[in-house]
Specification:
Layout (H helix, E strand, L loop, with lengths): L7 E2 L2 E2 L37 H10 L5 H22 L8 H11 L5 H4 L27 H20 L28 H12 L6 H19 L4 H5 L6 E5 L5 E8 L5 E6 L1 H13 L29 H5 L9 H20 L6 H9 L2 H14 L4 H8 L4 H4 L7 H11 L5
Antiparallel strand pairs: 1-2, 3-4, 4-5
Protein backbone atom coordinates (compact mmCIF):
# COMPACT_ATOMS: atom_id res chain seq x y z
CA UNK A 1 0.00 0.00 0.00
CA UNK A 2 1.40 3.40 -0.93
CA UNK A 3 1.39 6.36 1.42
CA UNK A 4 -1.29 8.09 -0.66
CA UNK A 5 -3.51 4.98 -0.72
CA UNK A 6 -3.33 4.67 3.06
CA UNK A 7 -4.63 8.21 3.49
CA UNK A 8 -1.28 9.99 3.98
CA UNK A 9 1.31 11.74 1.85
CA UNK A 10 4.93 11.90 2.87
CA UNK A 11 5.61 15.00 4.92
CA UNK A 12 2.05 16.15 5.53
CA UNK A 13 -1.38 14.74 6.11
CA UNK A 14 -4.37 14.59 3.82
CA UNK A 15 -7.89 14.04 5.14
CA UNK A 16 -8.73 10.87 3.25
CA UNK A 17 -9.86 7.63 4.82
CA UNK A 18 -8.34 6.92 8.23
CA UNK A 19 -7.51 3.23 8.47
CA UNK A 20 -7.72 0.80 11.42
CA UNK A 21 -4.53 0.15 13.40
CA UNK A 22 -4.03 -3.29 11.87
CA UNK A 23 -3.96 -1.97 8.29
CA UNK A 24 -2.62 1.56 8.60
CA UNK A 25 0.58 2.45 6.71
CA UNK A 26 2.36 5.44 8.25
CA UNK A 27 5.10 7.25 6.31
CA UNK A 28 8.50 7.34 8.04
CA UNK A 29 8.31 11.09 8.70
CA UNK A 30 5.19 10.57 10.84
CA UNK A 31 5.85 7.22 12.52
CA UNK A 32 7.30 8.77 15.69
CA UNK A 33 10.90 7.55 15.48
CA UNK A 34 12.02 11.13 15.89
CA UNK A 35 9.02 12.46 17.82
CA UNK A 36 9.60 15.65 19.78
CA UNK A 37 8.45 13.99 23.01
CA UNK A 38 10.54 10.82 22.65
CA UNK A 39 12.63 9.88 25.68
CA UNK A 40 16.38 9.90 25.19
CA UNK A 41 18.91 7.60 26.76
CA UNK A 42 19.09 3.85 27.27
CA UNK A 43 16.26 3.41 29.76
CA UNK A 44 13.54 2.18 27.35
CA UNK A 45 11.82 -0.94 28.68
CA UNK A 46 9.94 -1.85 25.50
CA UNK A 47 11.40 -2.73 22.11
CA UNK A 48 9.08 -0.39 20.15
CA UNK A 49 10.86 2.32 18.16
CA UNK A 50 7.76 3.90 16.59
CA UNK A 51 4.37 5.07 17.83
CA UNK A 52 2.33 2.27 16.30
CA UNK A 53 4.49 -0.44 17.87
CA UNK A 54 4.40 1.40 21.20
CA UNK A 55 0.59 1.43 21.12
CA UNK A 56 0.58 -2.26 20.26
CA UNK A 57 2.84 -2.98 23.24
CA UNK A 58 0.44 -1.09 25.49
CA UNK A 59 -2.58 -2.95 24.10
CA UNK A 60 -0.86 -6.34 24.47
CA UNK A 61 -1.29 -6.00 28.24
CA UNK A 62 -5.08 -6.29 27.93
CA UNK A 63 -5.29 -8.64 24.95
CA UNK A 64 -6.93 -11.35 27.07
CA UNK A 65 -9.82 -9.08 28.13
CA UNK A 66 -11.71 -8.36 24.88
CA UNK A 67 -13.98 -5.59 26.20
CA UNK A 68 -11.10 -3.61 27.72
CA UNK A 69 -8.92 -4.25 24.66
CA UNK A 70 -11.55 -2.93 22.26
CA UNK A 71 -12.16 0.15 24.40
CA UNK A 72 -8.45 0.95 24.75
CA UNK A 73 -7.76 0.31 21.07
CA UNK A 74 -10.61 2.58 20.01
CA UNK A 75 -9.32 5.57 21.98
CA UNK A 76 -5.65 5.10 21.05
CA UNK A 77 -6.60 4.59 17.40
CA UNK A 78 -8.73 7.72 17.28
CA UNK A 79 -6.02 9.91 18.77
CA UNK A 80 -3.29 8.50 16.53
CA UNK A 81 -5.37 8.97 13.36
CA UNK A 82 -6.38 12.50 14.39
CA UNK A 83 -2.76 13.42 15.06
CA UNK A 84 -1.68 12.13 11.65
CA UNK A 85 -4.60 13.32 9.55
CA UNK A 86 -5.48 16.63 11.19
CA UNK A 87 -2.12 17.82 12.53
CA UNK A 88 0.32 16.00 10.29
CA UNK A 89 2.49 15.06 13.27
CA UNK A 90 3.30 11.82 15.09
CA UNK A 91 1.58 10.92 18.32
CA UNK A 92 4.94 11.18 20.12
CA UNK A 93 5.10 14.89 19.20
CA UNK A 94 1.73 15.87 20.67
CA UNK A 95 1.75 18.74 23.15
CA UNK A 96 -0.61 19.67 25.95
CA UNK A 97 -2.26 22.22 23.65
CA UNK A 98 -2.77 19.51 21.01
CA UNK A 99 -4.57 17.35 23.58
CA UNK A 100 -6.92 20.20 24.48
CA UNK A 101 -7.64 20.71 20.79
CA UNK A 102 -8.37 16.99 20.43
CA UNK A 103 -10.89 17.12 23.29
CA UNK A 104 -12.72 19.91 21.45
CA UNK A 105 -12.59 17.84 18.25
CA UNK A 106 -14.36 14.96 20.02
CA UNK A 107 -17.44 17.12 20.58
CA UNK A 108 -17.96 17.27 16.78
CA UNK A 109 -15.56 15.24 14.59
CA UNK A 110 -15.24 17.21 11.35
CA UNK A 111 -15.12 16.84 8.43
CA UNK A 112 -17.78 14.22 9.03
CA UNK A 113 -17.14 12.43 5.73
CA UNK A 114 -13.61 11.67 6.93
CA UNK A 115 -14.37 10.73 10.51
CA UNK A 116 -17.99 9.62 10.93
CA UNK A 117 -19.48 6.37 9.60
CA UNK A 118 -22.46 6.93 7.27
CA UNK A 119 -22.13 10.68 7.75
CA UNK A 120 -24.31 11.35 4.73
CA UNK A 121 -27.03 8.92 5.79
CA UNK A 122 -27.78 9.92 9.34
CA UNK A 123 -24.66 8.34 10.87
CA UNK A 124 -24.51 5.78 13.60
CA UNK A 125 -24.16 2.56 11.63
CA UNK A 126 -21.15 0.43 12.35
CA UNK A 127 -19.12 -1.28 9.64
CA UNK A 128 -16.51 -4.06 9.94
CA UNK A 129 -12.97 -2.84 10.42
CA UNK A 130 -11.97 -4.12 6.99
CA UNK A 131 -14.87 -2.37 5.23
CA UNK A 132 -13.95 0.75 3.19
CA UNK A 133 -16.89 2.53 4.88
CA UNK A 134 -15.32 2.06 8.32
CA UNK A 135 -14.69 5.28 10.24
CA UNK A 136 -13.37 5.86 13.78
CA UNK A 137 -16.51 7.68 14.96
CA UNK A 138 -20.27 7.26 14.82
CA UNK A 139 -21.05 10.85 15.76
CA UNK A 140 -20.14 13.46 18.39
CA UNK A 141 -19.08 12.19 21.82
CA UNK A 142 -21.02 13.05 24.95
CA UNK A 143 -19.23 14.80 27.83
CA UNK A 144 -19.12 11.49 29.72
CA UNK A 145 -17.55 9.72 26.72
CA UNK A 146 -14.97 12.49 26.33
CA UNK A 147 -14.03 12.12 30.00
CA UNK A 148 -13.67 8.37 29.54
CA UNK A 149 -11.51 8.87 26.45
CA UNK A 150 -9.30 11.31 28.33
CA UNK A 151 -8.86 8.89 31.24
CA UNK A 152 -7.84 6.08 28.88
CA UNK A 153 -5.41 8.28 26.94
CA UNK A 154 -3.89 9.47 30.21
CA UNK A 155 -3.29 5.81 31.08
CA UNK A 156 -1.66 5.32 27.66
CA UNK A 157 0.66 8.31 27.97
CA UNK A 158 1.57 7.50 31.58
CA UNK A 159 2.46 3.95 30.63
CA UNK A 160 4.60 5.09 27.68
CA UNK A 161 6.47 7.44 30.01
CA UNK A 162 6.96 4.64 32.53
CA UNK A 163 8.18 2.37 29.72
CA UNK A 164 10.82 4.93 28.74
CA UNK A 165 9.27 5.60 25.34
CA UNK A 166 8.01 9.16 25.98
CA UNK A 167 9.72 11.90 27.94
CA UNK A 168 6.50 13.25 29.43
CA UNK A 169 2.73 12.91 29.57
CA UNK A 170 1.07 15.82 27.71
CA UNK A 171 -2.19 15.16 29.56
CA UNK A 172 -0.58 15.42 33.00
CA UNK A 173 -0.91 19.22 32.91
CA UNK A 174 -4.69 19.09 32.64
CA UNK A 175 -6.61 20.90 35.34
CA UNK A 176 -7.52 18.57 38.17
CA UNK A 177 -11.23 18.47 38.76
CA UNK A 178 -12.70 19.17 42.15
CA UNK A 179 -13.90 16.04 43.96
CA UNK A 180 -17.20 14.97 42.48
CA UNK A 181 -20.31 14.65 44.55
CA UNK A 182 -21.35 11.14 45.45
CA UNK A 183 -22.81 9.28 42.52
CA UNK A 184 -26.56 9.27 42.27
CA UNK A 185 -28.53 6.65 40.41
CA UNK A 186 -30.54 8.29 37.65
CA UNK A 187 -30.38 5.42 35.19
CA UNK A 188 -33.05 3.61 37.08
CA UNK A 189 -36.51 2.24 36.40
CA UNK A 190 -38.83 2.63 39.36
CA UNK A 191 -40.98 -0.45 40.00
CA UNK A 192 -44.05 0.89 38.15
CA UNK A 193 -42.11 1.61 34.96
CA UNK A 194 -40.29 -1.73 35.22
CA UNK A 195 -43.67 -3.48 35.51
CA UNK A 196 -44.79 -1.73 32.32
CA UNK A 197 -41.71 -3.06 30.50
CA UNK A 198 -42.50 -6.60 31.67
CA UNK A 199 -46.13 -6.21 30.59
CA UNK A 200 -45.02 -5.03 27.17
CA UNK A 201 -42.70 -8.03 26.74
CA UNK A 202 -45.50 -10.39 27.84
CA UNK A 203 -47.75 -8.90 25.16
CA UNK A 204 -45.27 -9.30 22.29
CA UNK A 205 -46.74 -11.20 19.30
CA UNK A 206 -46.19 -14.93 18.96
CA UNK A 207 -48.23 -15.58 15.83
CA UNK A 208 -45.28 -16.78 13.71
CA UNK A 209 -42.29 -18.99 14.46
CA UNK A 210 -39.91 -16.04 14.23
CA UNK A 211 -42.13 -13.86 16.43
CA UNK A 212 -42.26 -16.62 19.06
CA UNK A 213 -38.48 -17.03 18.91
CA UNK A 214 -38.04 -13.27 19.33
CA UNK A 215 -40.45 -13.19 22.28
CA UNK A 216 -38.68 -16.03 24.10
CA UNK A 217 -35.27 -14.49 23.46
CA UNK A 218 -36.31 -11.04 24.72
CA UNK A 219 -37.95 -12.51 27.82
CA UNK A 220 -34.85 -14.55 28.64
CA UNK A 221 -32.48 -11.63 27.96
CA UNK A 222 -34.34 -9.25 30.27
CA UNK A 223 -34.51 -12.00 32.92
CA UNK A 224 -30.76 -12.54 32.67
CA UNK A 225 -29.93 -8.83 32.85
CA UNK A 226 -32.27 -8.18 35.78
CA UNK A 227 -32.18 -11.33 37.93
CA UNK A 228 -28.54 -12.09 37.16
CA UNK A 229 -27.38 -8.47 37.20
CA UNK A 230 -25.21 -9.21 34.17
CA UNK A 231 -23.44 -6.53 32.17
CA UNK A 232 -24.21 -6.48 28.45
CA UNK A 233 -20.72 -7.79 27.56
CA UNK A 234 -21.20 -10.69 29.98
CA UNK A 235 -24.23 -11.93 28.06
CA UNK A 236 -22.09 -12.69 25.01
CA UNK A 237 -18.99 -13.72 26.92
CA UNK A 238 -20.42 -16.59 28.96
CA UNK A 239 -22.15 -19.90 28.22
CA UNK A 240 -25.00 -22.04 29.51
CA UNK A 241 -22.50 -24.67 30.64
CA UNK A 242 -21.43 -22.26 33.39
CA UNK A 243 -24.64 -22.99 35.30
CA UNK A 244 -24.01 -25.64 37.95
CA UNK A 245 -25.83 -27.14 40.93
CA UNK A 246 -24.50 -27.94 44.39
CA UNK A 247 -25.90 -28.96 47.76
CA UNK A 248 -25.89 -26.33 50.51
CA UNK A 249 -25.27 -26.83 54.24
CA UNK A 250 -28.96 -27.66 54.80
CA UNK A 251 -28.97 -30.31 52.09
CA UNK A 252 -30.89 -28.21 49.54
CA UNK A 253 -29.77 -28.28 45.90
CA UNK A 254 -29.06 -24.76 44.62
CA UNK A 255 -28.09 -23.56 41.15
CA UNK A 256 -25.32 -21.03 40.51
CA UNK A 257 -23.91 -19.26 37.46
CA UNK A 258 -20.18 -18.67 37.16
CA UNK A 259 -19.74 -15.35 35.35
CA UNK A 260 -16.45 -14.19 33.89
CA UNK A 261 -16.83 -10.44 33.69
CA UNK A 262 -15.14 -7.06 33.93
CA UNK A 263 -11.39 -7.25 34.42
CA UNK A 264 -11.54 -10.97 33.56
CA UNK A 265 -12.72 -11.62 37.11
CA UNK A 266 -15.01 -14.51 38.01
CA UNK A 267 -17.98 -14.25 40.33
CA UNK A 268 -20.72 -16.60 41.44
CA UNK A 269 -24.26 -15.40 40.74
CA UNK A 270 -27.12 -17.13 42.56
CA UNK A 271 -29.33 -18.76 39.93
CA UNK A 272 -32.68 -18.33 41.63
CA UNK A 273 -35.66 -20.61 41.03
CA UNK A 274 -37.14 -17.92 38.78
CA UNK A 275 -33.93 -17.62 36.78
CA UNK A 276 -33.66 -21.38 36.28
CA UNK A 277 -37.34 -21.62 35.30
CA UNK A 278 -36.79 -18.93 32.66
CA UNK A 279 -33.63 -20.64 31.43
CA UNK A 280 -35.59 -23.88 31.01
CA UNK A 281 -38.39 -22.02 29.21
CA UNK A 282 -35.91 -20.44 26.80
CA UNK A 283 -34.02 -23.68 26.14
CA UNK A 284 -37.21 -25.66 25.53
CA UNK A 285 -38.41 -22.99 23.09
CA UNK A 286 -35.23 -23.81 21.14
CA UNK A 287 -35.91 -27.55 21.25
CA UNK A 288 -33.18 -28.16 23.81
CA UNK A 289 -33.20 -30.03 27.09
CA UNK A 290 -34.55 -28.02 30.00
CA UNK A 291 -31.22 -27.85 31.82
CA UNK A 292 -27.71 -27.38 30.41
CA UNK A 293 -24.96 -29.97 30.60
CA UNK A 294 -21.76 -29.22 32.55
CA UNK A 295 -19.30 -27.44 30.25
CA UNK A 296 -21.90 -26.95 27.50
CA UNK A 297 -20.70 -24.25 25.11
CA UNK A 298 -24.11 -22.93 24.05
CA UNK A 299 -24.03 -19.11 24.40
CA UNK A 300 -26.35 -17.57 26.97
CA UNK A 301 -28.22 -15.89 24.10
CA UNK A 302 -28.53 -17.21 20.55
CA UNK A 303 -29.27 -15.56 17.20
CA UNK A 304 -32.71 -16.43 15.84
CA UNK A 305 -32.48 -19.31 13.42
CA UNK A 306 -29.30 -20.69 15.01
CA UNK A 307 -31.03 -23.18 17.26
CA UNK A 308 -28.73 -25.99 18.44
CA UNK A 309 -30.01 -29.53 18.04
CA UNK A 310 -29.46 -30.77 21.59
CA UNK A 311 -30.20 -34.39 20.73
CA UNK A 312 -27.75 -34.43 17.84
CA UNK A 313 -24.94 -32.66 19.70
CA UNK A 314 -21.88 -34.84 20.04
CA UNK A 315 -19.98 -34.96 23.29
CA UNK A 316 -17.17 -33.08 21.59
CA UNK A 317 -19.51 -30.30 20.48
CA UNK A 318 -21.13 -30.03 23.89
CA UNK A 319 -18.01 -29.99 26.03
CA UNK A 320 -15.13 -28.65 23.97
CA UNK A 321 -16.26 -26.92 20.84
CA UNK A 322 -18.24 -23.71 20.41
CA UNK A 323 -20.87 -24.74 17.83
CA UNK A 324 -22.71 -21.42 17.90
CA UNK A 325 -21.38 -17.90 17.93
CA UNK A 326 -22.92 -15.65 20.58
CA UNK A 327 -24.74 -12.47 19.72
CA UNK A 328 -22.45 -9.47 19.51
CA UNK A 329 -22.59 -6.76 22.13
CA UNK A 330 -24.07 -4.41 19.52
CA UNK A 331 -26.82 -6.92 18.70
CA UNK A 332 -27.76 -7.37 22.36
CA UNK A 333 -27.78 -3.59 22.81
CA UNK A 334 -30.08 -3.25 19.79
CA UNK A 335 -32.57 -5.81 21.16
CA UNK A 336 -32.74 -4.00 24.51
CA UNK A 337 -33.11 -0.54 22.97
CA UNK A 338 -35.81 -1.73 20.56
CA UNK A 339 -37.74 -3.32 23.43
CA UNK A 340 -37.54 -0.17 25.55
CA UNK A 341 -38.66 1.91 22.56
CA UNK A 342 -41.65 -0.37 22.03
CA UNK A 343 -42.59 -0.15 25.70
CA UNK A 344 -42.30 3.65 25.54
CA UNK A 345 -44.59 3.81 22.51
CA UNK A 346 -47.15 1.61 24.28
CA UNK A 347 -46.94 3.82 27.38
CA UNK A 348 -47.64 6.97 25.33
CA UNK A 349 -50.93 5.44 24.22
CA UNK A 350 -52.13 5.86 27.82
CA UNK A 351 -52.20 9.64 27.50
CA UNK A 352 -50.00 12.77 27.60
CA UNK A 353 -49.39 12.42 31.33
CA UNK A 354 -47.13 9.43 30.59
CA UNK A 355 -44.70 11.42 28.41
CA UNK A 356 -42.05 11.75 31.13
CA UNK A 357 -41.91 8.02 31.82
CA UNK A 358 -42.00 7.20 28.10
CA UNK A 359 -39.07 9.54 27.44
CA UNK A 360 -37.19 7.88 30.31
CA UNK A 361 -37.73 4.45 28.74
CA UNK A 362 -36.51 5.65 25.35
CA UNK A 363 -33.20 6.67 26.90
CA UNK A 364 -32.81 3.42 28.87
CA UNK A 365 -30.19 0.82 28.00
CA UNK A 366 -29.12 -2.62 29.20
CA UNK A 367 -27.09 -1.16 32.05
CA UNK A 368 -30.23 0.49 33.41
CA UNK A 369 -31.51 -3.02 34.19
CA UNK A 370 -28.40 -3.70 36.28
CA UNK A 371 -28.83 -0.41 38.14
CA UNK A 372 -32.54 -1.05 38.59
CA UNK A 373 -31.93 -4.57 39.89
CA UNK A 374 -29.40 -3.31 42.42
CA UNK A 375 -31.69 -0.49 43.52
CA UNK A 376 -34.72 -2.78 43.86
CA UNK A 377 -32.66 -5.26 45.89
CA UNK A 378 -31.46 -2.48 48.21
CA UNK A 379 -35.01 -1.10 48.54
CA UNK A 380 -36.18 -4.60 49.50
CA UNK A 381 -33.55 -4.72 52.27
CA UNK A 382 -31.26 -7.28 50.63
CA UNK A 383 -27.93 -7.12 52.49
CA UNK A 384 -25.61 -4.81 50.54
CA UNK A 385 -22.79 -7.31 50.95
CA UNK A 386 -24.84 -9.83 48.98
CA UNK A 387 -25.63 -7.26 46.28
CA UNK A 388 -21.93 -6.43 46.10
CA UNK A 389 -20.95 -10.06 45.56
CA UNK A 390 -23.77 -10.77 43.10
CA UNK A 391 -22.76 -7.80 40.96
CA UNK A 392 -19.00 -8.28 41.22
CA UNK A 393 -18.27 -4.92 42.87
CA UNK A 394 -14.88 -4.39 44.46
CA UNK A 395 -16.30 -2.67 47.53
CA UNK A 396 -19.46 -1.66 49.33
CA UNK A 397 -18.76 1.95 48.33
CA UNK A 398 -19.69 1.07 44.75
CA UNK A 399 -22.72 -0.95 45.83
CA UNK A 400 -24.02 1.83 48.06
CA UNK A 401 -25.07 3.86 45.01
CA UNK A 402 -27.99 1.43 44.76
CA UNK A 403 -29.44 2.77 48.01
CA UNK A 404 -32.02 4.48 45.87
CA UNK A 405 -35.28 5.53 47.42
CA UNK A 406 -38.02 7.30 45.54
CA UNK A 407 -37.74 10.99 46.45
CA UNK A 408 -41.40 11.36 47.43
CA UNK A 409 -41.23 8.25 49.62
CA UNK A 410 -38.01 9.49 51.22
CA UNK A 411 -39.68 12.80 52.07
CA UNK A 412 -42.78 11.10 53.47
CA UNK A 413 -40.82 8.67 55.63
CA UNK A 414 -38.58 11.46 56.93
CA UNK A 415 -41.67 13.52 57.75
CA UNK A 416 -43.36 10.56 59.45
CA UNK A 417 -40.44 9.09 61.35
CA UNK A 418 -37.96 11.87 62.09
CA UNK A 419 -39.61 14.15 64.62
CA UNK A 420 -38.67 16.43 67.49
CA UNK A 421 -42.11 16.26 69.19
CA UNK A 422 -41.92 19.36 71.37
Amino acid sequence: MSDTESGFEYGHAVALRPAPLESIAIPPALDGRTGANRATGARAQIAADNDLDAIRAWLARVADTPTTFECYRKEAERLLLWSLVELGKPLSSLTHEDCLRYQRFLTDPQPAATWVANAGAGGGRKHPRGDPRWRPFHGPLSPASIRQATVILNVLFSWLVQAGYLAGNPLALSRRRAPRAAARIIRYLEPGVWQHVKDFIASMPQDTARARAHYHRVRWLFTLLYLGGLRIAEVGGNTMGQFFVRRDADGAMRWWLTVRGKGDKERLVPATRELMAELSRYRQSLGMTALPSPGEQTPLLLPIGKTPDATAMSDRDTHSGAPHRPLTRAAVHSIVKTTFAGAAARLRECGPETEGRAALLESASAHWLRHSAGSHMADNKVDLRHVRDNFGHASLTTTSIYLHVDEDRRHKETDDRHRIDW
